[in-house]
Model the fold of this input.
Amino acid sequence: MDNWTSAIVVGASSGIGEAVARRLAAADVRVALLARRGDEIERIAREIGGERAVARVHDVRDVGDGAGVADLWDDIEAAIGTVDLLVFAAGAMIPVGEHEYTFAKDRAMLEVNLLGAAAWCDQAAVRMEAARRGTIVGISSIAGDRGRRGAPAYAASKAGFTTLLEALRNRLARAGVNVVTIRPGFVDTAMTRGMKGLFWLISADRAAAIILRHARTGRSRDRHVPARWWLVSAVIRSIPSWIFRKLSI
Ligand SMILES: NC(=O)c1ccc[n+]([C@@H]2O[C@H](COP(=O)([O-])OP(=O)(O)OC[C@H]3O[C@@H](n4cnc5c(N)ncnc54)[C@H](OP(=O)(O)O)[C@@H]3O)[C@@H](O)[C@H]2O)c1
Done:
């Protein structure tokens, strides 16, 4: 079992990230909440209670060469102590039309979901490998399982993140650092609000409980949340390409 003392949650202003941050704080883990909406993370930090939570406004599209992430990590550690858990929950899913190919939208999703994730996971890897302990949790998605016609760049960003996490897991295992990939199904958050045809929808708090249960085992793993999505994933991955292209998923 992993007992963390201090955590960074990137994308903590709403949805899954907020729920994870609240659950960590309730378990006496000091938490740094990061997101662009300062008013939201400050409100959540206040509700959690001053000593256990700090808020830092951060746009993961502004990671530059990564040096800013290192500085921000130092600043957070000065406030809450050595960080032994990173949860990267920030994510952007921008709707695109059936015949739309807008690079600005694709770039925004790739910058948040993949480049931003790499900047934060790299920083965690450097520090945790040196410390020979720690946990990295990445919230990826079953959307990365296939190239879906409805969301090309979102699917690509999540496929990339899933692969990045697997590679980090394989590198960091020898240093005793756990890397946990989470592939949620449908979760009731701002990201899915108003979407049609959702099923097996769970609350963000339920998702957070399952995510932390997997992360706390102290084992590196790749898990669907809830587990029954594993079956959906397996079926979707097994559909031949020529059939998959005829489906509307
Ligand atoms: N909901 C689902 O059904 C579902 C399913 C599979 C995977 N996921 C993944 O789960 C993760 C959490 O999403 P959610 O469902 O909880 O949606 P959400 O409520 O919209 O949360 C998204 C979070 O990402 C942050 N974020 C977005 N762009 C950012 C940026 N440029 N810089 C910093 N933070 C940024 C948002 O904060 P600010 O806007 O304040 O910056 C917010 O805290 C995402 O990676 C999503 O892809 C969700």
